Amino acid sequence: MTTRSAFSAPFEVVEGTGANLTGNVAPLLICDHASNALPPGYGDLGLAESEFTRHIAYDIGAAAVTRGLASALGSTAVLSGFSRLLIDPNRGLDDPTLIMRLSDGAVVPDNAYVGADEVARRVRAYYDPYHGAIAAEVDRALEAGNVPLIVSMHSFTPVWKSVARPWHVAVLWDSDPRLPLPLIAALEAEGDLVVGNNQPYDGALKNDTLYRHATLRGLPHALIEIRQDLISSAEGVADWVARLTRLLPPLMAAPELAVVARYGSRADRRLRAGEPT
After folding, report:
1. pLDDT, tens digit (0-9, with 9 covering 90-100), for 22-70
2. What's the total number of domains in the chain?
3. What is the residue range of 252's domain?
């Protein structure tokens, strides 16, 4: 994607076929930063159009990998339909970065003085419907007697503040090790990857998407971050879809994934200890 997408809805649901339902483990893919679109009435938030091709507007390549993986696995996927510059669905409502005023050197003029009423309007119109769609899919799986295995797809920049990032892929997680640790081991066993374990970000983020839909509900989950230069082309996307399609199904057969189990949260423990999150 090299231009700004047209806005159509706060979220997109790709219906799964259930083809790779392993026992009662049902994979559910989510993509928080799938789109760089802005709804009608928001114009360009005062930014140059070129800013919408950057990572500050969306996770480059993540939506294409999510859709490709959903198709290959027969899994349901929920993707956001709006830019993270409007409001970031992977942040808690009390997070100061929920609506970014400054992002990687770019001032967002129309966000600079957003008041409480406008924040509430964006939450009601875009943030809540996206999270409602994820919750509905989780509820639907549980009502059918299946345990949703939530895999969140993201991408990260190859360079941050002039420092090259060595990782090809990373797995972020909080306290539930059931999927992250076997997935990290499987990725490392490929032999051609530098794999981050909670690098370049920490997966313990209070009230983020996985905290809300997986950690609090005791559902197995992991967040996969792929370096953006590796999935910025159709060929790169296809390579990563093929790799993850090969690696994930064997992991889904682990019996410990087929149960609801609450492991707590490192983010919560840090807050109780008075440490920064």
Report:
1. 678 999 999 999 999 999 999 999 999 999 999 999 999 999 999 999 9
2. 1
3. 11-272
Q: Specify whether the CB–CB gap between 107 and 48 falls below 8 A.
A: no
**Helix, coil or strand: residue 190:** coil
Distance CA 126, CA 92 (A): 14
Q: Is the pTM of this model over 0.70?
A: yes
For residues 46 and 115, the answer to whether their CB atoms sit within 8 Å is no
| Phi, psi torsion values for 202, nearest 5 degrees | -95, 135
Q: What is the CA radius of gyration of the chain?
A: 18
CA 61, CA 58: separation in Å to the nearest integer? 9
CATH number of the domain residue 252 falls in: 3.40.630.40
Cβ distance 244 to 76 under 8 Å?
no
Closest CA to 224 of 32, 54, 48, 43: 32
Rounded Cα gap, residues 110 and 115, in angstroms: 11
